[in-house]
Structures are given as structure tokens and as C-alpha cells.
Design a protein that fits this description.
Layout: H1 10-28, H2 39-56, H3 68-91, H4 94-106, E1 112-114, E2 121-123, H5 124-139, H6 142-156, H7 166-207, H8 213-256
Antiparallel strand pairs: 1-2
InterPro entries: FliR, T3SS_IM_R
Keywords: Bacterial flagellum, Cell membrane, Cell projection, Cilium, Flagellum, Membrane, Transmembrane, Transmembrane helix
Membrane topology: Multi-pass membrane protein
Length: about 260
């Protein structure tokens, strides 16, 4: 019942209630939460996954729509979905951190462009690494793992008992440091070579003060940065797979314990 003497189909109300958690995850999750994904597509995917959830398990929605307990239950469902998608999105911030470090060391930190995934301005190197991480995420079936995880969450965190505990919220906050650590490790091969180049240029400036470092250092930094990035790309790709697995493992630990 709606609460004002009006009725709603039980199956439709159950589907709408299930779609809250799924839709909240799709808002912030990688790939699904990109601005390039239209809103009708997200709603359709939420409904399709919601039908799978209702077909595989029994969900008891609140009996009355317009009630305080119902609003609290909906807020709890949205919190669980946002937490699942957000903890994976944290891992996807690592390429942006690495792009800032590499771009600043190469001297192209000013080279920004609009990221089609987020709609915000981001470094060109970071955007390249972010697109590469997204492709690896899809190749590893990370999007399917997320859908499977949100379905299993209805067993581990059933509706009505789905409030995130203080320990789970603490784990999300602590996992935020992983983005900086992973970004630093991702940028380490290229950043180390650029650091060595800066040391060499510093010694040259002391031994030959008349040398114009602006005319030599900038092209050298760009050349070494591009070459080292091309050489280190296979190793960076392997570590990006680790980042994807760590993000999914953190989400799985958040849901299943």
C-alpha cells in the first residue's frame, strides 16, 4: 500500500525497491557511472539486474511506501550501492595520480583535456592511463564481477539489515590511501628515469653555467618521458591488472566480509 488508501502492484514495488541499491552502484561505479552512459541506459540496466535479483531470491520490500521506516530502508539500500561502486572507483583514481606525477616530471603538467569518462579536465597522461585501466577492467570482466557482487550483497546484506557498520565505513576511508600508493608505484618506472635526468641536468648546470637548460632540459625531459613510458608500458599494464583485482577484492570484502 502507498499509505494514503492507494495501492501499488507488489511486483512493481519490489522491483523499484531492489533497483535502489543497483542504481546507486551504477551511479558511482567505473564504466557504468561515466557521463557518456545515458541515464535511460542506467535505468534499464538497473531494472534488468533487479529482475534477475527477484528471480533468484526472495525480497521482502517494506509494506508501506510513504512511511518513515521505508525511507530509512531506501537510504540504507542506497548507501550499500554507493559503497560498492565507490570503493572500486577509488582504485580507478590511481592512474590520475600517476599521470600527475609523470606529467609534472616531463614538464607537460599543463597539458590538460576534458576526460570523456568524468566530464572534468584531467592531465593528458593520466587520461591515457585511465582509458587503459578501463579497457583492462572490461577485459577482466570487472563489470560482470560488479553485477554478480551486487546480487550477492542481497544475501550478505539483506534489505532491512543493510546499514553499513562503522568498521566497513572505516575500511572504505583507509582504502582511499591505496589510490595514492598505487599511483606512486604505477609512476615509479618513468618517474625514476626522469628523476635521474633531472639530477644529470642539475650537475650540468653546475659544471657549465652558460648552458641554457630551458632549451635543453625541456626536450630532453619530453624525449626521456615518452621513451621510458613506451618501454615501461607492459609492466604498467601488469600492475594495472593488480589495481583492478585489488579494487574488486576490496568491494568483495566490504560486501561479504
Amino acid at each position: 500500500m502507498l499509505g494514503f488508501g492507494l495501492a501499488i502492484e507488489p511486483q512493481l514495488w519490489a522491483l523499484l525497491f531492489v533497483m535502489v541499491r543497483i542504481g546507486a552502484m551504477f551511479i558511482v561505479a567505473p564504466v557504468f557511472g561515466n557521463v557518456s552512459v545515458p541515464l535511460p541506459v542506467r535505468v534499464t540496466l538497473s531494472g534488468a539486474v533487479g529482475i534477475l535479483v527477484l528471480g533468484s531470491m526472495t525480497i521482502q520490500p517494506p509494506p508501506t511506501v510513504f512511511a518513515l521506516s521505508t525511507f530509512v530502508a531506501i537510504a540504507a539500500e542506497a548507501l550499500v550501492g554507493l559503497a560498492i561502486g565507490f570503493i572500486v572507483q577509488i582504485a580507478f583514481a590511481a592512474p590520475l595520480v600517476a599521470g600527475e606525477l609523470i606529467g609534472g616530471s616531463m614538464g607537460i603538467g599543463f597539458a590538460n583535456m576534458i576526460d570523456p569518462n568524468s566530464g572534468r579536465s584531467s592531465p593528458a597522461v593520466g587520461q591515457f592511463l585511465s582509458i587503459l585501466l578501463t579497457l583492462l577492467f572490461l577485459s577482466l570482466d570487472g563489470h560482470l564481477v560488479l553485477v554478480d557482487m551486487v546480487m550477492k550483497s542481497y544475501t550478505a546484506l539483506p534489505p532491512g539489515a543493510a546499514w553499513m557498520a562503522a568498521g566497513q565505513l572505516r575500511d572504505i576511508a583507509l582504502f582511499g590511501g591505496y589510490a595514492f600508493m598505487a599511483g606512486l608505484l604505477l609512476a615509479l618506472p618513468v618517474g625514476f628515469l626522469l628523476l635521474c635526468l633531472n639530477l644529470v641536468m642539475g650537475m650540468l648546470s653546475r659544471s657549465a653555467p652558460s648552458l641554457n637548460l630551458f632549451s635543453v632540459g625541456m626536450p630532453a625531459s619530453l624525449a626521456v618521458g615518452v621513451i621510458s613510458l613506451a618501454i615501461a608500458l607492459p609492466a604498467m599494464g601488469d600492475y594495472m591488472q593488480v589495481i583492478v583485482r585489488e579494487g574488486l577484492a576490496a568491494a568483495r570484502s566490504l560486501v561479504l566480509g
